[in-house]
Every structure is written in C-alpha cells, then in structure tokens.
Amino acid sequence: MVSIEEMAVFCKRKGFVFPSSEIHGGLAGFFDYGPLGVEMKNNIKRLWWKSIVNDREDVVGIDGALISPESVWKASGHVENFIDKIGACKKCKTKVKLDKHEIGIKKCEKCGIVYADEGELNPMFETSVGSTGVKDKVYLRPETAQMIYVNFKNVLDTSRMKIPFGIAQVGKAFRNEISPRNFLFRMREFDQMELQYFVREKNAAKIFKEWKKIRMDWYISLGIDKKKLRFKEHDKKDLAHYAKEAFDIEFEFDEFGWQEIEGLHNRGDWDLSQHEKFSKQDLKYFDDQTKEKFIPWVVETSSGLDRAFLTFMFNAYVEEEVKGEKRIVLKLHPDIAPFRIAILPLVKKDGLAEKGREIFDELKTNCNAFYDDRSSVGRRYRRMDEIGTKWCITVDYQTLEDSTVTIRERDTMRQVRAKIKDLPDIIKKLSEGEKLETFGNFIK
Ligand code: ATP
Q: In terms of CATH, what superfamily is 339-439?
C-alpha cells in the first residue's frame, strides 16, 4: 500500500514531478514534470498516439489552440452548463466539488458534518485578448475535444477521410477545480488524450463497444493489472441530455479506491450540430457514393494523461526486502519507463568507463539509455530499480578480454553474459517479451 501523499513525495525525491512554483510558495493544482517524469509522460503520449493515430488508417491528428473565443464554448454548452456545485464545511472551511447526488448528504471527512451548499462555479478560466479598446472575452479550453469539432470541416476538406474516421488530439486542458487534490489526480492544468470518432448513427452503438475494448486493452498491454481495471457505466438518468451512453475506465488506487482515468461517450450528433448552429457554417458530411448528407455521430474516448501517469506509477510501485534491506522497484513496462537500459561500468578506471561510453553511444540511438559510472555498482542497480529501468548492462574486466557484458533484469535481479555486438538485437527481443535466459545461462 502506498498513499497518494507518499507517491507525491517519491515522485519529487526522484525527479518525476515537482509542485509548481514551489520556491514562491506553490500554487494548488499545478505541477511540473521533472527530468524523469517528462521522459515517462512523453512515452505515454507517444504510445497513445501510435496506437490511436500512427497504427491506423482511419484516424488523423491535430494540435489545436489553447485559447478560443466565447462562441466556441457557448456552442459546446460549457458557458451555460459546465457548472460545479460547491460544498463547504462550516467547521474546517474546506471546500469540495459535490456531484448532484451528494448535495445535502456528503459529510466532511475530517469533521463529519454535512457540507453546506455554497453555490456553484463554472470552472473555465476566462481571460481576454487584444491590447487596446474593447477586448474580446476568451476561454482557456477546459477540454481538447472542441478544437476537433471546430476543425472537422478543415480536416474533411484536406485529408479525404471517409466515415467512419477519427480525429485525435493530445494537449493541455484547464479547469479551475474547487478543490484540487490527490496529487496529479485533480489538477487545474492537465493533459488530455482525446479521440473523436465520426460514425453513422446506425453504427454508433457497435463502434462504441469496439472502442471500449480497444482502450481497455491498451492499458493491459502496457502492464496494468487487469484486476485493477474496470468499466463503470454512467447511470442513464445522470447522462448529459445529448449523451446516449457513457462508461468510465476506472483504476483501483491503493489508498483512494476506484477512480475514473478515462471516459468513453457516445455523444450523438450534439457537438457538430451545435457548432453548425452557432457558426452558421455547414458541418455536414457528404457521402459521394450514396449522395447522403448528414451530421455524423460521435464516439469519444477521453483519457487524462496525468491520471494515466499516476496509474502506471501506482501499478508499478513495489517495496520489497532483499537480504534484509528495503528495495523499491518500479515495475514499469519497458516502453513506459524513463530509461529502457542503463550502462554501468563496474569501476571508472582501467578503461572500463571508456568501454562503457562506447557501448552507450551505440545503444542510445535506438532507445532511451542512461550512463552512470559513479558509486558502487550495487547502489547504482538500486537507483535504476527505483526509476524502473528494466535492464542494466554492466561492463567489467572480462569485457576487456572477450567483449562480453552482463545484462541484469530489474524484477528478478538475475544476470546473463552476452556479446556486445548482440546487444541491439537482444534489447529489441527482450522488449518484445523474450525471456532473459534465452540469451545465456544465469550467472550464479
Ligand atoms: P471528474 O468527474 O473526475 O472531475 P470528469 O468526468 O469531469 O472527471 P472528463 O470531463 O470526462 O472528466 O475528462 C476526461 C478525462 O480527463 C478524465 O477521465 C480524466 O482522466 C481527465 N481529467 C479531467 N479532469 C481532470 C483534472 N482536474 N485533473 C487531471 N485529469 C483530469
């Protein structure tokens, strides 16, 4: 069991995530990714993009602006309906976001008294553009999806996509959350990975089911424990009036239980119809074979990049005892971990460091690699375990004689000897799931 607080401390200590602007007192709900965190976050983003965009012929990507005019958010319904209910504890003054079933019922965790109704808040951040005279009211986007809808026609006109097809986007979203908390789980600035998939009405339910499976399988393929993942269907009576069906993918966090990490929605034709109405532009799709003209339905998958990051961390974090000492291991999938391999010369002297650098220079072109020749090798192994590096390649005196090195596997701590020239191929096969013992006998 690791609490969210302990995870935040661990992430700071290792350089994964820092509280933002900390030397100036910090700002609740904002975090900065550090040297290791940014590598891991980029890996998650890249793998999502590859599976959703690059590996498919029916999805293209965009990268939309963070700020947009009020009209976009009037069309989307956010100006009017994106409302959070505020609950406040009369004793400790804590404020929380209440969902509509919790009003008048939910009690403060600390004081045990029912939260008082403190009104509501539209969590969109509002600002203005223009330097003189009348400034235009604009909003920072609270989700990435609307940039996809407003570019629907542009993409159609330039990419020759045929229904069914999708548009994907990864990027920042901003919400003035009432009570940002639980580390990266509820932030005021966060990243979303979203796909809007455009379909015919009659196929929407079937395609929605297909995407549910694709998205669940993605987490499992990257090592998330199946038992800690589930779908949660939204109660039909709680759905937004336009939504036909909605499921969350939930992960079971150690301390705070099952929580949403991704939402999947069958949104009907609501979004494009609204943008058509507000922009007075024709956003219909024309099928040149059947000669039909219609507003497509939308199947959406909306995943939080930071919640995915947390999920991978909680799923991977293990504390165990090895020879009477505590060992922390991040059992991350090698594609997710900040570094896939580390090159560690046993000692710096006698030409071992030079040999190590030579190997590092060759291998780093193919994968994220780390080089370290300081302190005892045992300590360096532990440091690599803690940040999830799956394989350590150690250069020792025998290397100078026969051009072999040892490869140590993070989880089992077992080692084999292999030829330097075979390393690129071995690392590739290990990454594909081949067992370490395929490449040599375990060293006793
Ligand atoms: P919640 O009910 O937890 O506030 P939501 O239902 O409002 O979330 P959506 O609007 O469906 O969330 O957003 C899609 C995804 O974006 C969520 O599944 C989550 O992964 C991510 N997300 C939403 N709000 C935040 C936030 N404040 N911080 C980090 N990630 C978020």
A: Anticodon-binding domain (3.40.50.800)
